[in-house]
Amino acid sequence: MTQRTPSPAAVDYPSGDGKPLAENDWQLRAIFDSFTALDHHFRDRPDVYVSSDLLIYHEEGNPRARAAPDVFVVYGVPKHKRPVYKLWEEGVTPAFVLEVASRGTWREDEGRKAQLYERLGVREYFQHDPTGEYLGLRLKGRRLVRGAYEPLRAVEYLDGASLLRSDTLCLDVRVKGEEICFLEPGTGRRILKYAELDAARQAAESRAETAESRAEAAEARIAELEALLRAQGG
């Protein structure tokens, strides 16, 4: 009896692969900081989608043809929540991918995933090794040139920091030790990550509350003086 091939509509594309987001705190922090910084940076661009650890399916009808980049950025698609990212439906390949190295992932990041991203046409593929144990470098980058990846040369600083320019993001990627951040070229202004955004929000709220309290105190003092003047005039 001939077995029927399921129609594309009947194929299940799970939103989970059973793997953890991160293997350790260093990897988790680097992923979280990178995602929140880029998500905030592109917050006003309705045509830029930023995600983290979301399964990308790249062959219709084959749910095993998938990858879950630690962080990725897509230009030219609507900014909305997705359970998975199907290339044949979205029609746009991620432009930028960041993978954060760990004991259980770095070999795949260097091998299968690099080959996959190259084949799919991901324009820039960056890697960060927070602990410095696996890649030999804390920061690595590749850029697609005529269909093949070419390595990028990082600028190395005396304080141990490394910097790579991402033409795709129009940002500089800077790594020092286990910390990764994104900078505006030219100004060097750092794109704030979640903890810094939260601290800035709390500081702004505190300043607003202080200003409101001062305004209320001033209004009370004015009312007091007006009452005193009325009493003296009477």
Top keywords for this entry?
23% strand, four-stranded antiparallel sheet, 234 residues, alpha+beta, 13 strands, 4 helices
Global morphology? elongated
Biggest β-sheet, characterized? 6 strands, mixed
Structural class: alpha+beta
The helix content is: 25-40%
Count of helix runs: 4
Estimated radius of gyration: 25 Å
* Percentage of residues in DSSP E strands: 15-25%
Which stretches are low in confidence, meaning pLDDT under 50 for 5 or more residues running? none
Secondary-structure element series: HEEEEEHEHEEEEEEEH
Got a strand count? 13
Terminal-residue CA separation: 108 Å
What spatial order of strands do you see in the largest sheet? Answer: 1-4-6-7-8-9
The average pLDDT is 88
Task: Walk me through the structure.
The protein has 234 residues and is an alpha+beta fold. Helix content is 32%, strand content 23%. It has helices spanning 25-41, 87-90, 106-120, 194-233, and strands spanning 48-51, 56-57, 66-67, 71-75, 85-86, 96-100, 124-128, 139-145, 148-151, 155-156, 162-166, 171-176, 179-183. The longest helix is centred in the C-terminal third of the chain and has 40 residues, at 194-233. The radius of gyration is 25 Å and the shape is elongated.
Quick overview of this protein structure:
The protein is α+β, with helices and mostly antiparallel strands and 234 residues long. It has helices at residues 25-41, 87-90, 106-120, 194-233; strands spanning 48-51, 56-57, 66-67, 71-75, 85-86, 96-100, 124-128, 139-145, 148-151, 155-156, 162-166, 171-176, 179-183. The termini are far apart.
